[in-house]
Predict the structure.
Amino acid sequence: MKEYFAFQWHITDECDQRCKHCYIFSEDSSRNTDAMNWNQMRDTFYNCLDFCKVYGRLPYFYITGGDPILHPDFWRLLSLLKSHELPFTILGNPFHLNDAVCRRLKMYGCQKYQLSLDGMRETHDWFRKPGSFDCTLEKIGCIKRAGIRSVIMTTVSGMNIKEIPAVIDTVTAYGADVFAFARYCPTSEEKDTGISPKEYRELLDTCYHIFKKYEAEGCSTYFNKKDHLWTLYEYEKGIFKIPEDAKDGIMYGGCNCGNCHMTILPNGDLYACRRVQNSKVGNVYQDRIADVWVCQMEQYRDYTKFEKCAKCELLAYCRGCPAVAGGKSGNFYAADPQCWKEVI
């Protein structure tokens, strides 16, 4: 198991955007927002520490929402993290950032601040709200001046797939420290990513050559190949090779669901993965996370159930994205709809 265990912790649903691909408001844009109170946040924090103590893991928190900075106890929570000398990452919006706020985040131990860019100006602002594109790019410098790593994340769908090369050019020009993309995860069976396997492989091929060009030029942006289908692409290109000393039954890479992360929602619900809509495994107000891990979470570690991946030599390294597969079919173990590999 990996040394660090990641908790994606949604402390509030409160947000000043209503993004068209948001999981929170995907089926009900006017639903009431949830938020933890201070006692619930404190108890949740120590529940997470208890889990890590039991299983010998180091906790890493991804504090998010909604926009977590809108929670009235946001800074109080960061003070609690600092008192335990725990670094963290914020996944949030750009609108409430300035130099003073970013310096304060750094003081409390923030290592990275992740912003989203879901296309060029017209497309991104359609997904999110007018002015969001320019504000996001402006705040990259604000984050960096404070000594925090700026991360730009793109959610790829059929709506913006042709704009990804331009997005890469833009974020590198603005000096983002990290860039990554992942696919839109359908939130119900009638929705779809709108991307064929052939189109997605072509995107990876295009991005691979763009990344190599920038790396050769000495570009400081790190291109995080987050989507596990990058493993399949690099395997076919001969860049990734299966280690000769690999042991059967060990998961060396691929989807971390069931291995080293869980998601906590503002109502206390504990999810195996936030992107897997039906993956609730408990509630932190009622359950000890350490118990949930060996009971309810076990269903996400039966790798023989993968309908396509279990027949593939890359099972221990890839597995595509079960969340995208589950969003399309309702089955976590179904074939990734963008996987182009023929498996007999």
